[in-house]
Amino acid sequence: MRFATLALTLGAMLAVTGCSRFGSDSGLNPFGWFRSTPSVPTTLEPKGGWKTQAEDPRQPVPQILSASFQPLNEGALLMVRAFAPVKGWWDLEIITERVQPEGQLRPDDDGILRLVVVGNPPLPDSPEARMPANPQVDAINVALPISTTQLSRMRGLEIRSATGGLALKP
After folding, report:
1. Which of 28, 47, 64, 99 is the most exposed place for a label (fewest CB within 10 A)?
2. Domain extents for the chain?
3. DSSP code, position 131
4. Minimal CA–CA distance to 62: which of 78, 82, 80, 92?
5. d(CA 45, CA 19)
6. Which helix (DSSP H) or strand (DSSP E) does residue 132 occupy?
7. What is the mean pLDDT of the chain?
8. What does the alpha-carbon distance between residue 74 and residue 149 come to, in Å, rounded to a whole number?
9. d(CA 80, CA 135)
10. Alpha-carbon span 25 to 128, nearest angstrom
């Protein structure tokens, strides 16, 4: 009699703990027996994998004219002025040389953040490809916001183009 009561009590306690909030993902929870497995990601890698520069069809702009910082409330805006010999460059962006997660700017181990100004040149058979650019009028302006936290981690910046580059101190 005592054994039956003890077994019944232990069985009831086990059933109650299987249905509890903290044990809801356990195999003892009867509400989860007929559910499909949840789609919990097993990795931090984004769908489709990390975007590498080898996959990026854009190429570095031909020349960088200048770079400067404009103050913001929470950091600075890196303004880069570049030049291409023909008009029509599009989809310009400042990217890091080393592949990093989106929205993060982390310098290398030496404290230098290495950036590249990339874009797409005009199509070879387009009218823009035959129009020479004027450096005074047709400069390409690209900007990148950098937060105060990101600025505090870096000792300097190196910005590269196809023919050279320049260095800045934050």
Report:
1. 47
2. 2-32, 59-168
3. S
4. 82
5. 33
6. none
7. 84
8. 9
9. 14
10. 61
- DSSP labels, 63-109: EEEEEEEEEETTEEEEEEEEE-SBS--EEEEEEESS---TT-----T
Q: Return the residue matching tokens 């003890």.
A: 6
Cα 107 from chain centre:
14
Q: Which amino acid is at 8?
A: L
Checking if the pLDDT of 93 tops 70, the result is yes
* 8 Å CB contact between 88 and 62: no
Kindly tell me if the per-residue pLDDT of 6 is higher than 80.
yes
Give the integer Cα–Cα distance in Å for 80 and 115.
Answer: 11
User: What tokens were used for 73?
Assistant: 């409330």
pLDDT band at 64 (very low <50, low <70, confident <90, very high): very high
